[in-house]
Amino acid sequence: MAGHGLTVDHVSRLRADSLDVNANQKQRRRVLVVDDSSDGRWMISSILKCLGMDVTVAPSGREGCEVAMTAVRGEQPFDLVLMDWQMPDMDGCEATVRLRSAGYAGRIVAMMSPSSFGAVDHTWQRAGCDGFASKPISFEMLEGVVRRHAATPAQGKKTARPIRSRAMAS
Asked: Residue 29: which of 115, 131, 151 has the closest Cα?
């Protein structure tokens, strides 16, 4: 697909990159991508797969919650959930609050577009996300998110954690 920014050059550079995010890991990291846009899911998944991630997708906040909690119950939690913030039906904020209320302790990163004034809305912190990624999505941005937020595979955490304050959020 044209216009997604994922090029052969990016893939070639990744393969040559000695700092592979999965280097020396026996277990591939599992990432859940929750995005209502089929193009967005395709692009994000393609980049994450190039980074060596095991990717699952969900087309809505509601389905993302179900997939994430099913994985926890099956003792196969995701190492990272990438949550689109603006979705119809159940947006990323509501989905994150529901996950945290249900005891989901895994890492969640909000994917947000800057407002019309160029500022980022900080509702992701109040909802319980571990961080945010500013759109538009790029290879470099996702690589950085994975390095920061999926440093080690999930350990099957099942207990709820308190919603972090602004000072504690990354």
From this structure: 151
Per-position DSSP letters for the chain, written without gaps between them: -TTS---HHHHHHHHH-TT-TTTT-SS--EEEEE-S-HHHHHHHHHHHHHTT-EEEEESSHHHHHHHHHHHHHTT---SEEEEES--SSS-HHHHHHHHHHTT--S-EEEEE---TTSPPP-HHHHHT-SEEEESSP-HHHHHHHHHHH-SS------S--PPPPTTT--
Residue 144's domain is classified under what CATH number?
Answer: 3.40.50.2300
pTM of the entire predicted model: 0.75
Average pLDDT along the chain, 170 residues, taken 10 residues at a time? 48 43 62 96 95 96 98 95 94 95 95 67 86 89 92 48 35
Residue 48: inside a domain:
yes
